[in-house]
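Hi W., the zinc ion complex you wanted:
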Amino acid sequence: MTQALIVIDVQNDFCPGGALAVAQGDAIVSGINALMAEADAVILTQDWHPAGHSSFASSHDAAPMSLVEMPYGPQVLWPDHCIQGSNGAAFHKGLNTDPADMVIRKGFNPAIDSYSAFFENDHTTPTGLEGYLRTRGITDLVMVGLATDFCVNYSAVDAAKLGFGVTVRMELCRAIDFDGSLAAATDGMRAAGVSLG
Ligand code: VGL
Ligand code: ZN
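Structure:
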């Protein structure tokens, strides 16, 4: 078994004071750093949107957290966040990025959001992470980060569907928990065969 640690979106905008702050998003940073030494590979994901991204409420004259129908299905409209090159898009300063073998950016396509580290929200456009992991012989994934109910959830479910063994370390994740999204996410992850550790 070869195991990778996948650290999802531990970025300033998802931490207290950020544009899309997740409660206690920064509380998981030191625990994540401590896990890095145990992994055969460490991969960081980085939400990385161009200004005016189609997932931003401001692009639709709509209220943040409202829903819109996109060609690929329903999409939550978010406050502007993780704009390419901004401080909000930078990793939390406490996160140890030195052990990272790879940083994968997502959400850069202006027309499609990308919660999952594997596929954009159309569920078909790949990010390339699957190929990276397979060519390195990685079979098992431990996932941590932000937010439990969106990017961690989508990444974990996609990884399980692709045949990886997946464990989400829930104590090293924090959720947005909007409109029942955390309960739905935990049900969905369990149904997909993800271990919630
Ligand atoms: C995320 C909403 C929008 C996440 C990213 O990292 O969970 N959530 N963009
Ligand atoms: Zn985003």
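The chain has four helices and eight strands.

W.
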